[in-house]
Amino acid sequence: MGATAALDSDGFAVELDIHRRELTGYCYRMLGAGSEAEDAVQETFLRAWRARDRFAHRSTLKTWLYKIATNVCLDMPERPQRRARPMDLVSPSTCETAVLNELPEYRWVQPIADANVLSGAGDPAELAAQRDSVRLAFVAALQTLAPRQRAVLILREVLHMSAAEVAELLDSSVASVNSALQRARSSIASQPAVADEAMLDADDRELLTRYVDTFERYDIDSLVALLREDAVSAMPPHELWIQGPAEIHRWMLGPGRECEGSRLLATRANGCPAFGSYRIDPDGGWSAWSLQVLELKRGRIATIHNYLNTEILSEFGLPARLDA
Predict the structure, then answer these.
(1) Which of its termini does the chain have fewer beta carbons within 10 Å around, N or C?
(2) Taking residues 177-200, what's their average pLDDT?
């Protein structure tokens, strides 16, 4: 409490907080989980506070904070496996072959609220690029890179820092930065694009309205008509995923039937439309069940990421239950 009061007293905390959203976005791309990104930003601010007397304005405060944040992310302990999506790990399942094998939280790329990492105003093209840079597929692809390569790619391609700035930030050389960037680009280029909506237009909003209506009425025939032929549904922390309207139809009228009667609350995650999903509570109302993140492509739903983790909903400001 005393440290917070001291921060506020000299205005340094206010200066730091101006950069919170951008730094959270950077740390999220580096680490693949919103909770870890927030922890990394807090540690960045703590290190900056402790070293504030050594900040001699040789660089901007923003650049200095990114240097600290990069070191925080690189210092975080390595896990035995990278964070990923189910489709990055196993082949698609069917209703007959599906096994609900649950993997630990640290195996999955986790969603993050748009409000925590994206600005709501600015140049439309830049905003679209920022949304693309937090797509789940892109963040998962980033996790395949070595940590320093990952940092170089994000700093150069997403944050548009110069090679000289990144070299200074990483205590490296321009040649090393350029070499790391070339290798990172080559690796990321092999990853397919999943979603394509830069901004939701009237047709997209109508599509989402129909999705909510059909899901809440549990009209699965009408719901699957909104899907692309190659649509995918995934359910972390289970590693299974299913593909195609027919298989998704079978799943939702089979093992997924318990979702009948659910309610959805709209939000935004990873540059995409998202919904808090609430199942019927036997004691009345609806209880939190999951966070659905929808990716749209050419006017249809391409992917439904169904995160079966009710703790995530609080990070989006969504309630734990809905009253009748």
Answers:
(1) N
(2) 79
CA 190 to CA 203: how far, in whole Å? 30
Query: What are 37-87's pLDDT values in tens digits?
Result: 999 999 999 999 888 877 766 568 888 999 999 999 999 877 667 899 999
Amino acid at residue number 121: A
Q: Is 251 exposed, middle or buried (0-12, 13-18, 19+ CB in 10 A)?
A: buried
Task: Measure the CA–CA gap between 81 and 87, rounded to whole angstroms.
Answer: 15
pLDDT digits (tens, 9 = 90+) for 85-130: 999 999 999 888 888 889 999 999 999 999 999 987 778 888 888 8
Show the 3-state SS of the chain. CHHHHHHHHHCHHHHHHCCHHHHHHHHHHHHCCHHHHHHHHHHHHHHHHHCHHHCCCCCCHHHHHHHHHHHHHHHCCCCCCCCECHHHHCCCCCCCCCCCCECCHHHECCCCEHHHHCCCCCCHHHHHHHHHCCCHHHHHHHCCCCHHHHHHHHHHHHCCCCHHHHHHHCCCCHHHHHHHHHHHHHHHCCCCCCCCCCCCCHHHHHHHHHHHHHHHHCCHHHHHCCEEEEEEEECCCECCEEECHHHHHHHHCCHHHHHCCCEEEEEEECCEEEEEEEEECCCCCEEEEEEEEEEEECCEEEEEEEECCCHHHHHCCCCCEECC
> What pLDDT digit, counting tens, does each position of 224-275 carry?
999 999 999 999 999 999 999 999 999 999 999 999 999 999 999 999 999 9
Provide the residue count of the chain: 324
Which pair of structure tokens corresponds to residue 295? 């990716």
pTM of the model: 0.91
Q: What does the alpha-carbon distance between residue 150 and residue 188 come to, in Å, rounded to a whole number?
A: 10
Summary mean pLDDT of the chain:
90
Pairing of strands 241-243, 227-234: antiparallel
Q: Which of 192, 191, 199, 194 is nearest to 273 (CA)?
A: 199
